[in-house]
Amino acid sequence: MKALQDKIRQEGTVLSDRVLKVDSFLNHQVDPELMAAIGQEFAARYAEAGVGKVLTLESSGIAPAVMTALALKVPMIFARKQKSLTLNEDLIVKTVYSFTKEQKNEVAVSKKFLSPGEKVLIIDDFLAYGEAALGMAQIVEASGAVVAGIGIVIEKSFQNGADKLREAGYRVDSLARIASLADKQVTFLEE
Ligand code: G4P
Ligand code: NA
Ligand code: NA
């Protein structure tokens, strides 16, 4: 998606060979027009997929996910991260390990918002090692719903998340695919 690549080139900061900072439009301040365009792009790609819900993980997935849900005219759910969960039989909980942060997070969605057979589009801001997306997919499947696909705003293709998700059989749609962050430069896969 050209507008997204341009924005990354203009405003992204390469913090290291593995980390891209995009806090001026995605991870802190949010660009609503770009998010709306991102939502329309995901909605167009999944127009024929029968999506009934969009699922993301708080917090940075919420902006692109809600715009996607708006364009598809379906509800959006954000999975919640909770440090300690008291017994609550209405929650589906998965543990997600973050290689970037070297910590475990419990991620939870209330059962009442996912129905058996329903098709769910998972959206996230970044794809690194794929653990967050896999955790969300497991939550969808535990509810009896079906993963329609996984839509990613920025995929770091030099990490193994996209391969892992495709090997697990999921459709993955990434709007920007970064081949390398070496030498403080963003190099996209399609160039
Ligand atoms: P994974 O799910 O693909 O395995 O990724 P990982 O656990 O390594 O990512 C941990 C957090 O770091 C996630 O945000 C993810 O979106 C973010 N992240 C990963 N790589 C980058 C990067 O290069 N740049 C930026 N800006 N973020 C990155 P989170 O902890 O869920 O935080 P948030 O959603 O509240 O922002
Ligand atoms: Na993030
Ligand atoms: Na995220």
UniProtKB/TrEMBL annotation:
Keywords: Cytoplasm, Glycosyltransferase, Purine salvage, Transferase. 5-phospho-alpha-D-ribose 1-diphosphate binds at residues 128-132. It catalyses: XMP + diphosphate = xanthine + 5-phospho-alpha-D-ribose 1-diphosphate. One of its GO terms (molecular function) is xanthine phosphoribosyltransferase activity. It is found in: Cytoplasm. Residues 53-157 form the Phosphoribosyltransferase domain. Pathway: Purine metabolism; XMP biosynthesis via salvage pathway; XMP from xanthine: step 1/1. It comes from the Bacteria. Belongs to the purine/pyrimidine phosphoribosyltransferase family. Xpt subfamily. Homodimer. This is Xanthine phosphoribosyltransferase. The lineage of its organism: Bacteria, Bacillati, Bacillota, Bacilli, Bacillales.
